[in-house]
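Late entry, written up from scratch paper. The run itself happened at the end of the previous shift, but nothing got recorded in the book at the time, so transcribing now.
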Amino acid sequence: MRRTRISTALVRRAYIVFACIVAGFAVVAIRILSLQTVDFDFYQKKVVDQLTTESTISPERGSIYDSNGELLATDITAYRIFISPSGIQTMMSDARKEKEKTGSEKKNDGIDREHIDEVISRGLSEILGVEYQTVMDLTKKKGSLDATVKRNVDKDTADKVLKFISENKLGNVLYAEATAKRYYVYGDLATHVIGFTGTDGNGLYGLEYSYEKELAGTPGKYIIARDSFGNEMPYEYQSYIDAVDGYDLHTTLNVKIQSILEEQLESTYLESGSLAGVCGVVMNVKTGAVYAMATYPDFDSNNAWTLCDVYRDQLEKSGYVSGSSEYSSLRSELLLKMWSNKAITDTYIPGSTFKIITSAMGLETGAVKESDQFTCTGSITLAGTKIHCHKVRGHGNLNFAQGLQQSCNPILITVGQRVGASAFYDYVKNFGYLEKTGIDLPGEGSTYFWNRSEFNIVQLATASFGQNFKVSSIRHLTSVASVANGGYLVQPYLVDHITDSDGNIVWKHNSTPIRQVVSTSVCERVSKILEEGVAGDGGAKNAYVAGYRVAAKTGTSEKIGDNESMRIGSCVAYAPADDPEIAIMIVVDEPTQGSLYGSVVAAPYIANCLSQMLPYLGVEAKYTDAEAAKMEVEIGEYRGDVAYNAKTAIEKMGLSCEIVGVGTVVTAQVPSAGSTLVKENGKVVLYVGDEAVPENDLVIPNVVGMSASAANRTIINAGFNIRIDGTTNYNAGSGAKAIAQYPAANSIGTRGDVVTVTFRYVDVTD
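Output as recorded:
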């Protein structure tokens, strides 16, 4: 047998080929090993992502409460209507294939699956009010398993969608998913504070925005395995992760106090003819807790994208065509203006209300005493600059206390000069004016004040009476509150504590004062001066409230840098002056009707607020003898009573009584039961006998413009009762004037009817 000899070269080539094969297998083996070990998680995720869809499980957003546990904002059930475009396209494709196979356009149930996109678009357009083409476009989104048609659908509408789904066998392509919709219990109450959420449920304004992280909670996940047609199938990677509900906010707001403030803001807005809105704040002077905060015009948080009447009128009167770019731009501008919380975001020149701060500085440093004498000639000149007093002819000779009460500019300028620029600047800083308050609301405005190096004697002079610099309302009220509470600067806040879904407190506000700025004794002296001015002949006497010691200061300022022809009128007050509980501020931007001074456009509404808020807060009224004589009493029901007994009961209340007719039993009375009359001059007319009946035969006189004594005499002499509204210390100083009456003059009334007359000091300035 012959043996074949293999060449060395051939053997070498064989080894090389073998080595390459081995190397190739080694590379493959290493790659496989890498895929199964090092890169396993990465590629496993890619596979899982291709086979699964992830659905977010929304948590329940936390609720918002007032300080008494009244619910302000919460989630309610709404529905999201959505479709599966991929499923719709698959259904239509299957229907076409069925038609080609069987020749039949529809199945026995009569549903047109080949054109199911049209059926769905037409049905949802009718039920939801969504444009037909909008739905049709959504059905054509390739590869999409979830396309939202409409959010926040109510239950009745969702039920119609579910019926439509059932009738057309659309359970795999059209869905109604229960979701949460934000609901604001009181609608437009405290709307600028609470804010609102967007369509995605995220906070956009107010506390909803500031506490978004706490309120929102943590979303959960539901991972579902689906095939290429979108059908759910069993898969080992399916999982469910619970959502964590948001925390609840327990605010310092008080629904009652908030309602009172908002009512008065609307009144001053309308009566002053304000062109730029009004705002107000009520806070606890000792802790900084904000009981109420509001801006008017307001809006409904449940319909935050709808302009309120005031701004809608401005839009309609603009002359722009609806749908035009100019129209849309103005609408967006007005929405932002409507949503803005003026008490936080806007800055303004505080005017004479800042004289409270200057006075505290002067008394603290010893630069002035209450008894120091000054002469106001109507102006003062510093460094060649002449600065006028609001009283052009001058106040004449006044001591410092009187100068503050009469809001004399030259006197306060002199006090500022005595304090000195450096010390004055330090106090401005210590009172907090050079920094934001840090209140838990977005958009707080910063103070515009001079740099220390630029603060010369002229600027010191203007700053002394609150001019030529700007602060936010919340900043100014907080600084004034430090004078009210004994000298301690506090931080204003709106959320007292936060709880989880089980009611456990997870966070609590710390109300420790930031620092003491001036001594308690100085604060007491300032408060006494202000209170005596309100009760006497001071510029803030329209803020007087019978039975309560109110410390108040009014102010009027120009809008330097803005519309310089316009003014801002304001009033700051706190009560009771000897042991303050609350501080309150009202700012009226661009008043146009009547007097433009804060003493007229703001102070009376401060008084209206305090007269209701203080009794509600449990602060007991303490009346002087003079005040007690002017108090009102409520008369009872005397019809059917013996006339003599009824007369005795009426006179025991301090009222007078007139009996008309012949008989012993009361058959009619004027005023009716429940009416209130002033003790000092109130009269009840009792009718006895069947023939004695009240007759509308008296003409109500016109008393508008009269003094209190003249109006009282005129009303009484005409046979009517008078009820005093507005300023109740109407005889202080030069006396208040009647500015309105109800019923109107020349109306016909009955003997004993009550005529309500509103008095106000209209000659006071700031």
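The chain has 25 helices and 35 strands.
(Scratch paper discarded after transcription.)
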